[in-house]
């Protein structure tokens, strides 16, 4: 039983800010390569590991991980809103399998997902309901964070389930930045209004959503112009992590600590947890080969921007 993987940075700024034309062309080419990889594999099932940016999960109840039995896009930054095509019974079986392996994972029968989950589905599969998809939320913004070994174990547990599905061709997706430090409020430093949003800011008014998004868009423009105060991207850190993921031996990742990750690569570098889970899942089907790998630090997108495809060795 083989598996396939796409890990990609996402950025809500893809449609709002423009890097130099040659950089934009590179990113488009990397997406096209990944799309062709997916089309060739022709998945019958997708497992999407994605973070959330205080659109679906809040501090009123923040799990480290959550498997969606039903899910809908919230439609932030112009991404698709509405239901994903979640195979509910299969998602329930997956959650049971994971629970039996000593991993305590939340479930949701009404998961709300944002651009973190939706953007890869739109880019790779042409929409949020084109291929049956089990969404797995991996917290990448809210402290406290689990140890990285736990993320790897979750990926392995999910992968071991997927390898039992003889009749499926399963694509695992990891979505999120490598190094990046976008202006997502953090509880410890948030003001009162931000804390209200972080606590339970579901379903904001259009005006509130616009204001929040405009702040991120403006920060991207300032970052590109060299006038933003956010932490810089870290291409060395990003490329070293990509090298480890490609190597097939994820054990060095267990030693990474959340504090050091934030210091080296910014507060949203925790989104790489989705890549670790996806690669750990892929590895359960045996040795794998990276088919394509793109990387460029792109300040206009506020992201160390990577796109990787990989597949179980034939
Ligand atoms: O909170 C938001 O609105 C999105 C912030 C954001 C910006 C760039 C790249 C990202 O991965 C990201 O999450
Ligand atoms: Fe993100």
Automatic annotation (TrEMBL):
Per the Swiss-Prot or TrEMBL record, the active site comprises: 115, 180
The region annotated as signal peptide is none
- Residues forming coiled coils: none
Instruction: Quote the Pfam families the UniProt record gives.
Output: LigB
Q: What class of enzyme is it?
A: oxidoreductase
| Cofactor(s) the record lists | Fe(2+)
Q: So what EC number does this one have?
A: 1.13.11.16
Give the metabolic or biological pathway: Aromatic compound metabolism; 3-phenylpropanoate degradation
Keyword Acetylation listed? The answer is: no
Q: Which CDD domains match?
A: MhpB_like
| Superkingdom assignment | Bacteria
Reaction(s) the record says it catalyses? (2E)-3-(2,3-dihydroxyphenyl)prop-2-enoate + O2 = (2Z,4E,7E)-2-hydroxy-6-oxonona-2,4,7-trienedioate + H(+); 3-(2,3-dihydroxyphenyl)propanoate + O2 = (2Z,4E)-2-hydroxy-6-oxonona-2,4-dienedioate + H(+)
Q: What are the residue boundaries of the Extradiol ring-cleavage dioxygenase class III enzyme subunit B domain, all occurrences included?
A: 6-305
The record's listing under Gene3D superfamilies reads: LigB-like
Record keywords = Aromatic hydrocarbons catabolism, Dioxygenase, Iron, Oxidoreductase
Gene Ontology MF annotations: 3-carboxyethylcatechol 2,3-dioxygenase activity; ferrous iron binding
An annotated GO BP: 3-phenylpropionate catabolic process
Query: Record's family?
Result: Belongs to the LigB/MhpB extradiol dioxygenase family.
State the protein's purpose: Catalyzes the non-heme iron(II)-dependent oxidative cleavage of 2,3-dihydroxyphenylpropionic acid and 2,3-dihydroxicinnamic acid into 2-hydroxy-6-ketononadienedioate and 2-hydroxy-6-ketononatrienedioate, respectively.
Report what the protein is called: 2,3-dihydroxyphenylpropionate/2,3-dihydroxicinnamic acid 1,2-dioxygenase
Which species does the entry assign this protein to?
Answer: Nocardioides marmotae
Q: Please spell out the taxonomic lineage of the organism that makes this protein.
A: Bacteria, Bacillati, Actinomycetota, Actinomycetes, Propionibacteriales
